Amino acid sequence: MNALVPLPVVLPLTACGLSMFIGPRLRMLHRLIGIGVLAAVLAVDLILLVGADRSGPLVVHLGDFAPPLGVTLVADRLAALMLTVSGAVTLIVLVYALGQDMVDREERAPIAVFHPAYLVLVSGVSLTFLAGDLVTLYVGFEIMLMASFVLLTLGGTEPRLRAGSTYVVVSLVSSLVFLAGIAVAYAACGTANFAQLAVRLAEVPVGVRTLIEALLLTVFGVKAAVFPVAAWLPDSYPTAPAPVTAVFAGLLTKVGVYSILRAETLLFPGNRLSTLLMAVAFASLLIGILGAVAQTDLKRLLSFTLVSHIGFMLYGLALGSRGGIGGAIVYTAHHITVQTTLFLAAGLLERRYGSTELTRLGGAARTAPLLAALWFVPAMNLAGIPPLSGFLGKLGLMQAGAADGGSEAYVLLAACAVASLLTLYVMVKVWNLAFWRATPAHLPLEGTVLEATDDTDDGDDSDSAPVVKSTGAVAVAPAACVRTTARVPYVMIGATVAAVLLGLSYTVLATPLAGLADRSAAELLARAPYVTAVLGP
User: Fold this and answer.
1) d(C-alpha 286, C-alpha 418), whole Å
2) CB 190 within 8 A of CB 68
3) pTM of this prediction?
4) Short-list 500, 522, 243, CA closest to 381
5) How many CA atoms lie within 13 A of 235 on its CB side?
6) Disulfide check for 400: which of 21, 300, 324, 459 has CB 3.0–4.6 Å away?
7) pLDDT digits (tens, 9 = 90+) for 13-37
């Protein structure tokens, strides 16, 4: 079974090569390759999850070179669980993206560009979860950066290029800090392998060890978009196409959370920086959700809730207990799926009504009841309404905080409660504005299409005014006219339904998921199973 460990990295890269080789014209073949390979990756992920849970960490030394010379890939319970969740999410998002392309046929985002970049992104995500050393983790981050910049700037529009540039600059700066952290760790310990670092860092002077930890936490904090290094996220994600935004929001920030979890439990046990982590979690929880309260654009609103809910995961990690880390693992798996689903639903809303600006939406529950249901279920899940998985994850974290008994833990517990209530307020606000209220008077009613046209023939469009073309409804054109109704392809709806069902499955399978998370937490805190599996008895 160890031989299967590299496949989640190798298969998408192989499929990327095939996509580049066959060219842009064989569109159906691109779709078959992408869906087939990601389905195979998901199957391998499930096998690795079962194997890691039954027999312990699965290890492969590439080229049969022992640490520290070779590259080591490790699939323990935590890595296999993250691989499985990410495999399911990336497959669903790919189907959603293919459904969108079947209708759009946009030459600005040709399938020959999207497919290879998306497959490279999946490979990079898998590599970060499986990385057994800091250098391999760095390579995984850089693979994701390369692919994500291409996906963020699909179409080459000015807003996307501007947002993509911000994302790349922030990522490159964090990469430089990461290289500095790797250099200091290697100079102090003579290795970058996680298992060897877990043994040798204990012999390093406290000051040097704290410096390494601070450098790595800074890098991983940027990737996870925790406050105060999260300002780049709300400006970068909302401009991208809906499937790209969905997979970025669901997965890329969780790669940072995973890296923090791995480093703090394996390399730096003892929670020396637990107070700092709790302060960061507190700020992320409250500032992120207050930012969401102030937004009127749905995508930016969801981006701020993403920053806020990273604080829940950091809270469990900062507690350092088995219950806290187990709760953080459950909440991470839950949040990957639910946040992705919300962005997919936002993409459906944008296609149906031409905008995600809440002040320009209304009446969607009457005109599109299925779309309303696809939004409502994950929205309530994110808010933590019983008995959904969001409630179960938050309950586990709060119980772990109460069991800790420290004053910082109780302050964070109160912050979690406030953030949950404000999340519910934000979700209800979106529901009322976009779905429940009647269509505002200044917006077109059902069946009305707004187009920006120019009645003159002088070749100058600079002074052209929007003209309303109505099909049975009287409307006044808003400042920037948009398409208000459009057919939503069934493939996109089906993919969103699958994402909603995946999120609900965490509620149905709450007991086995919580048990797996608890065993993962115990394995992380013990450290010995990981070190022994990599280095031998």
Assistant:
1) 8
2) yes
3) 0.87
4) 500
5) 14
6) 324
7) 998 888 777 766 677 787 888 899 9
